[in-house]
Amino acid sequence: MPVTSITTDTDALSMTLVADFPVAPERVWEAFADPRQLERFWGPPGYPATFGRFELTPGGVVHYWMTSPEGQKFYGRWDVTAVDAPRSFTVTDAFADEHGTADPGMPAGQMTVSVDATPTGSRLTVLSTSPTLEALQQVIDMGQVEGMRQSMGQLDTVLADLREYALGKGTQTEILDDTHVRITRAFEAPRSLLWRAHTEPALMRQWLLGPDGWEMTVCELDPVAGTPYRYAWAPVGDTAGQPFGFEGETVVVEPQRRLVSTERMSGTDFPGTVNDLSFDEVDGVTLLTLYITYTDVAQRDMILATGMTDGMEASYARLEQELVTA
């Protein structure tokens, strides 16, 4: 975890985040100055940002929104007051509407992002200052401390060379907390192909099979928000096991970027999960990130104990062989 500290100071009406990275300051600056890179970490897991207007120059305006797993959008606006590239920038940070107009009913603060060289790389400091103690407490109560920690905790993945960081390492599962798990898998392929492989039933039937000896008997999917889907599998020949399936609803669709759906096992009363799948491509390598939300720790551990990661890797290895290298 790159974040080393987050402190609040009620006298200075401020919150300060500090994070260290083993890369040059110019590389960290690039991640903030490029909206496509910024989208990969600005916003905690499950609430990724999309930047529309992006003018990181004095007097410029930045308009963005975070989309929840339920499809709800939360808008923000930066009015850029100072830029000292590649070292720092300062903005007035405000809540906004879908048009980028600041919300006068919500407090606006000041944020300064600075990057400094260290003996081992660089140090990122994000200083947020509120106009009043009440405004500071309001953003704290809204979860800004933990949100910033989670957001900046994703920056190391953005800064890493994906070929070194993830390619060839298979499916990786990381337990984030009692109800959240993050699963990653890298492919040397464009995300356009991987998006098709996850949204076109004819392609999904070629690889989404789990271990050898199973077939996908049902694949009903229309990648449109608000539509239901259903998958089912059955053993082939002498393969042991009982047919099973999953069903749910597609909630968020951002073509070639993000696909969020609910999921529950067909024919059971087991609680469901929310699956948030994202696609990030850098220099011909695409990183799939699946962020799963469970109802509680017991459900999380029960599902992980089924060998889910191994089953996913078997399918992803088949995807790599059947489609990516075909």
From TrEMBL:
CDD domains: SRPBCC_CalC_Aha1-like. Residues 23-159, 189-323 form the Activator of Hsp90 ATPase homologue 1/2-like C-terminal domain. InterPro entries: ASHA1/2-like_C, START-like_dom_sf. Belongs to the AHA1 family. This is SRPBCC family protein. It comes from Antiquaquibacter soli.
